[in-house]
Amino acid sequence: MSNDLSVLHEDYVSRAREMLRHMKQGDEAETARLLDEIVHLREDSLFRELGRLTRDFHDSLNNFRLDSRLADIAQNEIPDARDRLSYVISMTEQAANRTLNAIEDSLPACEALESRVSQLREQWACFTRREMDAPAFRNLSRDLEAFLGEAGDDLQRLRANLQDVLMAQGFQDLTGQIIRRVITLVEELERNLVELVRISGQKLAQPAKEARQVSAADVHGPAIPGLDTGTVSGQDEVDDLLSSLGF
Amino acid sequence: MDKNIKILIVDDFSTMRRIIKNLLRDLGYNNTSEADDGLTALPMLQTGNFDLLITDWNMPGMQGIDLLRTVRADPRLATLPVMMVTAEQKREQIIEAAKAGVNGYIVKPFTAQTLKDKLEKIFERVAAR
Question: Quick check: A174 and B109 CB within 8 A?
Answer without folding.
Answer: yes
